[in-house]
Amino acid sequence: MLFFFGTRASKVKERKLKRTTCPYCQTQDSFVVSTFSKYFHFFWIPIIPLFKTHIAECTHCKKSYDKTHFTQEMQHSLENENRLNPAKRPLWQGCGCLVLVAFFAIMMTISFYGVYMRSNNPEKYKIEVDPRLALLNADIDRLSSIVQTKDTVTLALKQCVDDDIVGGISTEDIAYFTKQNDDKLLILLEIRDIKKIDSKYRKELIDVVEDCMRYTNPKDSITQYFIGIEGKWNTVLVKTPFDEDLGGRFADKQLLLPFYGDKPIALEEKEMGSVLVE
Ligand SMILES: [Zn+2]
């Protein structure tokens, strides 16, 4: 990581120091002063110009002096030169700065343009959300570890799962929610201490639920089970008649959406349209 940023210097001007005498060899008007400009660089890209330094060299005896060792005469001559023929810093020493300013200006323009376009075409940029997802999220919010006695389906399931479940799970903390939609039954469980079960064995929880549904056999009219198991933070297992996600860590809860019915037609068209465009 050394030297990725720091200061560098470049020579910007060479001038003669008139009416001077070299203190070493006594030659007159023999000094050439080189002016260097220091700049701050980052990865060798000049970012900010800093200060200037001057080094005078006697062309006769080759002795050189930095500015702190200039004689009064040399000092005076340099001041004169600076007035008549100043050493200007090259523009490129600040170019990194300019590039950064230009870059931010372009980024701001692009994002303002995006905001402007969106505010003028709200329809085009509206993000379509499957309305079934809102229904599912509302049902997930209704998970409860307290099951009402009149909710016979859930109660039977809870009693069965409590008996069958293993792995040190505290059964009184498991939250349940069930909901029927024609011949479909949505079964949601929330097991907040699911981390006590190794992820590769978690899919057995689905087996427990399925066995319990077969055993309790709540209603003959139900032919399809949509089972989702929530962990502390996210959905960890999903199994439906059409799909399953049983890796045991992060499951796609959207697989449960067919429980609420078919995908809205408008969304389907939009997705097909975007596939064609791509
Ligand atoms: Zn000299």
Per DSSP E runs of 2 or more residues, the count of β-strands stands at 9
Name of the level-1 CATH class of the largest domain: Alpha Beta
User: What's the number of domains?
Assistant: 2
| Small molecules bound | zinc ion
Low-confidence regions? 274-278
- Summarize the helix and strand pattern as letters: EEEEHHHHHEEHEEEH
Gross CATH architecture of the largest domain: 2-Layer Sandwich
Task: Fill in the CATH topology of the largest domain.
Answer: GMP Synthetase, Chain A, domain 3
Hey, roughly how much beta strand do the residues contain? 15-25%
| Sequence of strands across the biggest β-sheet | 5-6-7-8-9
The major β-sheet equals:
5 strands, mixed
Determine the N-to-C terminus distance: 43 Å
Structural write-up:
It is a single chain. The chain is α+β, with helices and mostly antiparallel strands and 278 residues long. The protein folds into two domains: 92 residues, no CATH class; 136 residues, 2-Layer Sandwich (GMP Synthetase, Chain A, domain 3), CATH 3.30.300. Helices cover 33% and strands 25% of the residues. The chain has seven helices and nine strands, in the order E-E-E-E-H-H-H-H-H-E-E-H-E-E-E-H. The chain has a five-stranded mixed β-sheet, with helices on one face. Strands 1-2-3-4 form a four-stranded antiparallel β-sheet. A hairpin with a 2-residue loop joins strand 2 and strand 3. Helix 5 crosses helix 6. The longest helix is centred in the middle third of the chain and has 26 residues. The relative contact order is 0.09. The C terminus is likely disordered. The chain binds zinc ion. Zinc ion (ZN) binds next to loops.
